[in-house]
């Protein structure tokens, strides 16, 4: 995420407000995407993540920040749709069709259509880099990749590029929204024309988290507030996310492209921050992300775009313990590394699992050290528990990592010992979950 400045007064929207501690029945109607980042050393293997999302959540789309073949292959056969990202540094070379053909042949063709790749994101927040070479080659690369996909018989895969809201020169009130001079007609107008012609979405990354002040916090996290009035339209906005979307729409309409679809590539709120960030909390993260999910699933659109639906990807799937920067950067996740929710926004099917039989599994906690994981494996496998599945050639040998092997061993012990919580303690390195960690041919006993 490139942190382009967002005007602090970008307030707005519509929505009254409960924390989205949804009932199981309501959750059936949910549809949302997540950004699947992997800057962490404690995450489960991609195949396990893919199985978890398909079987245990209502998340139906994932967005990668690269084209890692292990991650793409892991989602084969799941039906979960995927956004694959071209690295910023690859953009100049891909402006030529032969190079674009080679890139598609290497990074997309081996996995499609088994993996439901629905979007190709060309770079990430390229305009915010101010790199003139990248910016000059961005649209040509998008065109070349579109042509390469069509020639390879994969024309259903759409092409876009995510933008930070730094592309806006004005945004409050939303009716005044306009793009930055120099980018508006020279870069964004031709790009919007491309999106119109190819029927692909203009993707933006709205982050009320980076635009709120102490005075406007409730606007930002969908809590009750008096709203912000736009005198030009007579609209009273009551959440910042909707205002940001309408500001983007106003900028597009000003260039004559108000009909182009808009998608949300990233948005979110962290659950843990530093001492000087009192607005960063589990409660506020649950309020923002929960009500965001409800907002984009409502189908009501925004005041300036009534009835529109926005393909939306929350940042992020996991807390990522190796991300640089302040504490908040490592705590945007909806889930911990052990696949348990950081907070409840109604996306998991665990209530259904509990109703269906109350099955539980034991997994390593996110903070378990490698030494502890090895000790757990040694203890379990010397206690008479069958560990053949994590030995060479076993169904759960791959991925050949301590965390993966420890997860299977700890769960096998937990199940054989009677499924008491204390059987999953392992010196405070185990955690009980309702989410089945099985993946592929590796089946965890329950």
UniProtKB/TrEMBL annotation:
Keywords on record: Disulfide bond, Glycosidase, Hydrolase, Plant defense, Signal
EC number of the protein: 3.2.1.39
Main EC class the enzyme belongs to: hydrolase
Catalytic reaction annotation: Hydrolysis of (1->3)-beta-D-glucosidic linkages in (1->3)-beta-D-glucans
Recorded coiled-coil stretches: none
UniProt domain X8: residue ranges: 360-444
Domain of life: Eukaryota
Any one GO molecular function term: glucan endo-1,3-beta-D-glucosidase activity
BP GO annotations: carbohydrate metabolic process; defense response
InterPro entries in the cross-refs: GH, Glyco_hydro_17, Glyco_hydro_17_plant, X8
Nucleotidyltransferase found in the keyword field: no
Signal peptide: 1-29
Cross-referenced PROSITE patterns: GLYCOSYL_HYDROL_F17 (PS00587)
Similarity remark: Belongs to the glycosyl hydrolase 17 family.
Name of the protein: glucan endo-1,3-beta-D-glucosidase
Biological classification of the source: Eukaryota, Viridiplantae, Streptophyta, Embryophyta, Tracheophyta
């Amino acid at each position: 995420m490139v942190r382009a400045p967002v005007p602090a007064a970008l307030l707005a929207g519509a929505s009254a407000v409960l924390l989205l501690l949804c009932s199981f029945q309501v959750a059936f109607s949910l549809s949302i995407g997540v950004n699947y980042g992997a800057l962490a050393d404690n995450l489960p293997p991609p195949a396990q993540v893919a199985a978890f999302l398909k079987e245990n959540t209502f998340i139906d789309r994932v967005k990668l920040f690269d084209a890692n073949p292990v991650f793409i292959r892991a989602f084969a056969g799941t039906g979960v749709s995927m956004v694959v990202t071209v690295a910023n540094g690859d953009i100049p070379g891909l402006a030529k069709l032969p190079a674009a053909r080679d890139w598609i042949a290497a990074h997309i063709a081996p996995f499609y259509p088994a993996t439901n790749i629905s979007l190709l994101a060309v770079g990430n927040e390229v305009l915010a880099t101010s790199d003139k070479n990248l910016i000059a080659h961005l649209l040509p690369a998008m065109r070349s990749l579109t042509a390469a996909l069509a020639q390879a018989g994969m024309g259903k895969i759409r092409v876009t590029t995510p933008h930070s809201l730094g592309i806006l020169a004005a945004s409050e009130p939303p009716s005044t929204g306009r793009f930055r001079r120099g980018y508006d007609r020279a870069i964004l107008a031709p790009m919007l024309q491309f999106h119109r012609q190819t029927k692909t979405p203009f993707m933006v990354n709205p982050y009320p988290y980076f635009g709120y002040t102490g005075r406007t916090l409730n606007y930002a996290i969908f809590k009750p507030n008096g709203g912000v009035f736009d005198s030009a339209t007579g609209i009273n906005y009551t959440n910042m996310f909707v205002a940001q979307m309408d500001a983007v729409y106003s900028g597009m309409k000003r260039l004559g492209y108000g009909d182009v679809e808009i998608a949300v590539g990233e948005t979110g709120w962290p659950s843990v921050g530093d001492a000087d960030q009192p607005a960063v909390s589990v409660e506020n993260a649950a309020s923002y992300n929960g009500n965001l999910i409800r907002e984009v699933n409502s189908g009501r659109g925004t005041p300036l775009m009534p009835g529109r639906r926005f393909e939306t990807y929350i940042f992020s799937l996991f807390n990522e313990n190796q991300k640089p920067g302040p504490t908040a950067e490592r705590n945007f996740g909806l889930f911990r590394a052990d696949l348990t929710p950081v907070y409840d926004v109604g996306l998991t099917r665990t209530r259904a699992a509990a109703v269906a039989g109350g099955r539980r599994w034991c997994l390593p906690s996110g903070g378990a050290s490698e030494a502890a994981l090895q000790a757990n494996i040694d203890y379990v496998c010397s206690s008479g528990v069958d560990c053949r599945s994590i030995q060479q050639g076993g169904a759960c040998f791959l991925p050949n990592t301590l965390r993966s092997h420890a997860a299977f061993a700890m769960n096998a012990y937990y199940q054989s010992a009677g499924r008491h919580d204390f059987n999953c303690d392992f010196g405070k390195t185990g955690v009980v979950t309702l989410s089945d960690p099985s993946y592929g041919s590796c089946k965890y006993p329950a």
